[in-house]
Every structure is written in structure tokens, then in C-alpha cells.
Amino acid sequence: MMTDLNAGVATGCPDPLNDGSVDEELAVLMRDLNRMMRAAVDRRLEPLGLSQAQWRPLLVLHRAGQPLTQIELARQLDIEAPTLVRLLDRLERKQWIERRPIAGDRRIRHIVLTASACELIRTILPLVRAVRDEAFADLDADQRLACLRALQQVRDRLRG
Question: What pLDDT is attached to residue 7?
């Protein structure tokens, strides 16, 4: 279904960026899929008492495979530094992360997962994989690979 060319007209605010094109539809779909995948993971992790604000940074740190600085983590989570500081305070109180100083620079700290966070991640990952498997169930391997390659091209273009 293509986007309505008159979207916004009823409110008196036509959207000049909404031209009903495939590009517009792709941009909206990527945003919607991101939101929907996170919501589906939230529903799966709710019985564990985890919110998106908690599980996302844990998974980002896990996937990084190495400690990240607060700045790097904030960028990957797409949140502002003050918001991240409050979030890290909560994660530290739960003993899921540690902030470790970096030799030679007292201003910067690495964020490191604790053993209890790693244990929690072992519980989280199968639930996240189940959401992903359900989401992609109707796509065969070739379709998945084509989607991956196309989205990687878009990402690489935007990175410059």
C-alpha cells in the first residue's frame, strides 16, 4: 500500500516530504519495523521485569564485544549523555554494569558488563532470537540476504 499523496491535507499541514514514492514508503517502513521489533522484544522480556531502557544497553554492550565509553554507548543507543548517565546509574545499582576508568584519562570511563549481566543476557538472547525468527519466518534465505544487502547499502551511503 502506497502512502496517500494527500496525507496531512485534512489537518491543513501537507507534508512536502510525503510524495507517495517507494522511497517514502521504505523510510516509513524501516522506522515502523524498528519500533515494532523493539515492542515485540519488550513483550517477551516483560516477564523478566526488563524494560527497553534496560535490555537495549545490555545487548549493545554485549554485541560490541569490548567495553564502550559512555559517549560510544550513547551514540549507539541514540540518546543524549545526561539520559545515559541516569540509565547507567540504574544499571549500576542493579549490578549489571561497572564504570571503569581509562588509564591516562580520568574523564572517560569504560562501561563493562558484570557477571550477573552476562547471566541475564544468556536468558535474554534466546527470547530476542525468537522474536527475530518469528518476524522473518515468511522470508526465505535469499530474500533475507537481499534485504540485508540493500539495507547495508543504504546504511553505508548515509555514513558517507
Answer: 54
The CA–CA distances, whole Å, from 138 to 26, 36, 92, 104, 144 equal 19, 17, 40, 51, 10
* Dihedral class, residue 137 (left if φ above 0, else alpha if ψ from -120 to 50, else beta): alpha
DSSP, res 9: G
Model pLDDT, residue 126: 97
Cβ 125 vs Cβ 48: under 8 Å:
no
**Cβ(110)–Cβ(68) below 8 Å:** yes
The Cα–Cα gap between 148 and 154 comes to 10
Domain 17-135 classification at class level = mainly alpha
The residue ranges of every structural domain in the chain are: 17-135
pLDDT at 98: 96
Amino acid at 103: A
Alpha carbons 111 and 100: distance in angstroms, whole number: 6
pLDDT along the chain (160 residues), means of 10: 51 65 90 95 94 93 94 94 93 96 88 96 96 97 96 93
What's phi and psi for 62, nearest 5 deg?
-65, -45
Cell numbers that stand for 159 in this block? 555514513
Give the pLDDT confidence score for residue 3 in this predicted structure: 47
